[in-house]
## 1
Amino acid sequence: MNDMHIHYMHFVSQLERQWQEQMNNRPQQWKVSEGLAAKIKEDGTMNDFYGYTTVIPLSASDRQRCEQAQQLLLERLPDRFVALLPETFHLTIHALSNERNTSGGMEIVRQRMTRDQPQIEQTFREIAERYAGRHIAMRALGVSTNTRDVVSIKYAPEAADDYALLIDLYERIRELSPERSMYSPHVSLCYFRLDGLQSSEIDLLYETMDEINRSIKLDIVLEVDQLVYQMHRHMNDFPAIFAVHDFVE
C-alpha cells in the first residue's frame, strides 16, 4: 500500500466519522450560528454576502438527483428552510475570500481579489494544462447538518486517484488563500431560517435525512474543466469570472 492510498484512506475515514457524528448528535434544542445572519435575513430571503470562491458546478443529471433530496426536505418542513437554487448547486473547492473569512468588509475583499486575480488565472491555466478532460468520482456519504446553519450532502472521493486529483486542486488554490480547517467536500441544499426548529421539527428533520440517505443515490462525478472562479453577491447569485475550460487549448 503506497503513501497516497494511506492518505486517501485516512481522509475518507475522517470524513465518514465527521458525517456519522453529525447524524448521531441530534440536538434537544436548536440554535443557529451567529454567522448565519450574514447570509440569511429574518424574513427568509438571502442577505447580501459578498465574496469570491472556486467551485465545480454539478452536471445536469447530478443536479437533478440532489434536487430530489432538497425537495423532500422542503416538503416535510415547509417554511423552515431557505432553499438554494438547484442551478447553483456546486461542490466548493476553496472559498477564497468573503466578508466572513476576511476582515475589513466588502471593499477589502474586492481589493484583495483584484490583487490576486493574475495569480488565480495562472493557477487555472496550470490546472488546464495538467488536468484538462479529467473527472473526479465522488461517493455520497449522505445528507447531514451541523445543526447550526445548513443541510448539505457530504462526499468522499470514490478512489485514491480521485482523492489525489481533488486534493491537488484544493492545495493549488489553497496556496492563494491558506485556511486551517479540514477540507470537507459537500453540496449545500438549504439554509435554516434564523428562528431555527421546534422539538418535533428536529425529529422530523432527522427522519427525513435518514429517508433520503436510504432512498436516493447521490453520488456525483465532477468535471475538472468546469472548475470556475466566481464571485457571489448572495448565496443564490454566483456570476462566473473564468473557468478551467477557458484555458484549454
## 2
Amino acid sequence: MRKVNIGALLRIALGVVVVLVASVAAIVWATVPSAPDGHVRVPAKTPFTSGPYFAYSQPWGGEMTALTKLWAPRADHIVVNLKKFPSDTQFYWRWPPFGPTNGPGVWAYSAVMHGNYDGGEPDVAVPPKRVRDVREFRQTFAWTIANGNGDGNVLSEVYLRSSDTDPDAKVLEIGWFLHMPQSSRTWFENARPVGVFVDPNGMRWAVRIEDKFCMFGPERAQDIRTGTLDMLAALAWLRANKTITGDEWLWGISLGVEPVKGVGHLTVDRWSVARQ
C-alpha cells in the first residue's frame, strides 16, 4: 500500500487556499469603482450632502449575517457627480451570488434622499410636515441598472412618523418598487393585499402590506425606468381606505437599490423631488 504523503497534501491544500485568497483579493480590487474627474467616490456608511439632497449606503442586511459582517462596510460604494447631484449618482454593490437568509432578504440599501429620510440631515433642512397639510409631493426619475451578474430591488421609500422630532417614531414605511427580482416579486405577492391604486397617469399599482411596510408594485410585473410618481395621490388613496389617518408626519424620501445578490450597479440618471 502506498503511503500517503501528508506533508505534500498539506502543501497542495495551502496552495489552493493561497490561490483562492489571491483570486478573491483580485476580484475585490478589480471591482472597486473609479471616480473620474468631477466625481467623488463615497464608501458605505459615509454621508454625502448637497442642498436638500443626501446620499448614503447602509449595509444593514450584511451586518446582520456572520458570513458577511466584516465585508459589509466594503461591499457598497457611491460615485457622485459633483455638478449634477442628485442626478447621475451611481451605486455599486459587491455581495455573494445569493441572497441573505436573514429576515430582511437584502444586503443593504444605497440611495439618494431628499430631506431627512431616515435620520440623515441634508445641508438644507426640509422640515417634516403632516400628511394632511401636504399640497404637492412628487418625484421625477430615470434610472438604469447593470444586473447581469447580480440583482437588487430599485425602490423609492418614505417613512410616516408619529412625531416631527423623533426619527425612530415610525408608524408606517411606504415603498414603490420600480424593479423587483423574481424572489422579491414572490415575497411581494405573498403579502396581504390592500387594493389596486390607479395613479394620475393611469398606471395600476398593486398595494400590499407586510407588517409595517406598505408596498406599491406594478400590478403587471414590469420595470418603471422613467417617469413621475405622484406620492400625494397615493397618500390620499391610503387615507381614503383608512390605511393612514393623515395625522402622520412626512419626513424625507429616497430612491435607490437594495442589493439582493451578486455584483452590479444602479445609476440614478435623473432625480428631483417637489414637496409643498
## 3
Amino acid sequence: MNLQRAYILLAVFYSALIVVGLIALTLGAGSLVSIAQLLVGAVAVLGLWGYILGKGFMNSHSWRPFTALLAIGVVLQLLAVFTMPVTNADITWLLSGAIFSAMLLAILYRYGDRDQELWASDEEIEEGAHLGQLLESQPELVVEKQEADRQAKVRMVKTGDRYRASVTRRYGEQEESFEKSFKRPSTLAYFIQTFTCITLQDLRAQHGNDKAPAA
C-alpha cells in the first residue's frame, strides 16, 4: 500500500465517523458539545480530503488558525475528561474527538502552507512558470512600478531550488524593505501581486518578451 492510498483510506474512515456521529445524534445520543465536535470534525475532514486530492478548499490562511484551534480543542477535551464530572456518554464523545482530532493536526498544518500550487490561481501558475523560466536564464530579475504616490521595486533570484524576492516599496514618505523565499514560482507571483502595487500584467509587460534557454 502506497502513502496516497493510505491517506485515502484514512479520509474514508474519518468521513464514516462523521456519518456515524450524525446517525448517533439523530437517535438522541450526544449533546451540544457533540454537535460542535461534529461540525469541527466535518471541517477537518474537508481539509483532509483537500490535502489528499490537491485541491484548495476555503482559504489557505484559514487552515493554520483552524489547526491551532483544533489543538486547543484536543487539550480542552482531555482536561474535561480528567477534571470534570461528565457522563459516560460524554466521556466517549470527548475521548474519541480528542484522539481523532490529534491525528489530523500535522496534515492540516501542512495543508495550510500557502507555498503550494493547489492554492495558486491558473494565472499565478502560468506567470510563475514564466518567471521560473526567466530565472533559469538570468541571474536576477528586476521589476519596478510607480503608481501615483506608491512605488515598488522587486528583485528576484533563484538560489538552489528556492525563489527569493527582495521588495522595496514606498508609500508617500514611508519606505520599507523585506525579503521572502518560496519553493514554488507560482507563490512568488502571488506574493508580488499581493504585497506590492505590481500586478501579474506588469510582470508580463516588463519581461514578457524575454526568452528562456532552449531545453
## 4
Amino acid sequence: MPRIRRLARSDWRLLRDVRLEMIADTPMAYIESLAAARRQTDTQWQERASAMAEDSSITLVADGGEDGSRISALMRVVVKHPQDLGKPKQVMLSSVYVAPEHRGLGLADQLLLESCAVAETELGAGIIELGVHEDNARALRFYQRHGFCTTGASRPYPQDNSRSELVMERRLS
C-alpha cells in the first residue's frame, strides 16, 4: 500500500504528472482542461505546488514511499474563507484522485480519513465541504459512507452550467 504524505513545494514535477493524468482520466471531474494544463510552464507548476502547500491549503498524496516516487493518489483540503475570523472555519475538499491501478484498495478511504483529521486538527475546521456532480451516484454513496450529508444546496457544474454539483458536508468535531 502506498504511503500518505504531504505534497511539498519541491514535488512540482510529480504534481504536474499526476494532474495531467487526473484530467486525462476523468476530464469532467476538474475545471481545468487537459490542453490548458499542458500549456503550463515549469514556473507555473512550481507556483501551483507552492500554493498547494501553503498555510490555508494542505494537499495529501500517496506514493511509493521513496523520494521521487510516482503519486498514485491526491486529495486537497483548502480553507474556504481564511480571512473571515468571525465564523467557524470551513474547508473544501478538492482535487480528489486515485489512479486506476489503485482503485478499490481502500486508498481513497485512507486519504479521506487523513484529510478530515488534518482539516480538524491542523486547520481548525469544524466543517468539511465538497461538491459532487449530480449524476455521480458512486461518489455520493462513498461520501455518505464517510459521514457526509447533502446540504440541499447545489451550484452550477463548472464545465456545464446546465448541470449541477450537489453540496455535501461533514461536521468534524
